[in-house]
Amino acid sequence: MEALERYAENTRAADTAYREWEAIRELEQLGEDMHELVVNTVRDELAVAEIEGLADRSRLQDLHRMLDEAREAGLLATRFADEPADRRSGDSGRV
Length: 95
Prior knowledge:
mainly alpha
């Protein structure tokens, strides 16, 4: 009878150890999944930041282009205003 009780106790202990081992394996897998989730999240956040940076640079380039065009238009208008009226019309006054 004692041997049977020891066997039952050892079986319960082995079953408990096996369940704990399975729980540890599940936690390890969950840890790997969480690690992958964190890595993907960080990668996504970095990608968003890079895309936003590119968009900002694009808008900045558009602004620079518009300012350059406005400056050139202003220079042309100034030159045009400084020319005598007969030169602007293409008439040099010659007969």
